[in-house]
Design goal:
Length: 113
C-alpha cells in the first residue's frame, strides 16, 4: 500500500515521462496503448496518429488522451498495468529493452516475466 501511495503522489510528474513513451512505442509493447484504450473505452477508441512519435510532437487532443491514459494506468498501479500487459500480449521485458530510462518502480514491475 505504501508503494501505491508513493506512486500516487508522484503520478503527474512520472506520467509525463516514461508512461507516455511506453504507451506510444512503435515496438510490440506499443500494444499497451490498445489494451489501455480498450479498457477505458470498450465501445471504441481513436488510434494514435503514429506510433513512436514523441509526446511533444503530437497534437493537443492526442496529448490529452495519452495523459489521461497514463493517469488511469497509474491510479491502480501495478494492477492495471498487469491486466493491460496480459490483454495486449506484450512482454514486460520488452519495455526494459526499448526504454532504458524508466523509473525504478516501473523497471521492477517490468522485470517480473
Amino acid at each position: 500500500m505504501a508503494n501505491r501511495q508513493k506512486i500516487g503522489r508522484n503520478a503527474s510528474c512520472l506520467a509525463g515521462t516514461s508512461t507516455f513513451t511506453v504507451l506510444s512505442s512503435p515496438t510490440k509493447d506499443g500494444q499497451l496503448y490498445d489494451a489501455v484504450a480498450d479498457q477505458m473505452w470498450p465501445q471504441g477508441y481513436q488510434a494514435l496518429s503514429s506510433r513512436g512519435e514523441s509526446y511533444e510532437r503530437r497534437g493537443v487532443h492526442e496529448r490529452n488522451r495519452l495523459f489521461g491514459m497514463a493517469i488511469w494506468l497509474l491510479q491502480d498501479w501495478p494492477d492495471r498495468f498487469e491486466m493491460c500487459v496480459r490483454h495486449s500480449g506484450a512482454r514486460r521485458w520488452g519495455f526494459l529493452a526499448h526504454h532504458p530510462n524508466l523509473p525504478p518502480w516501473f523497471k521492477a514491475q517490468c522485470g517480473k516475466d
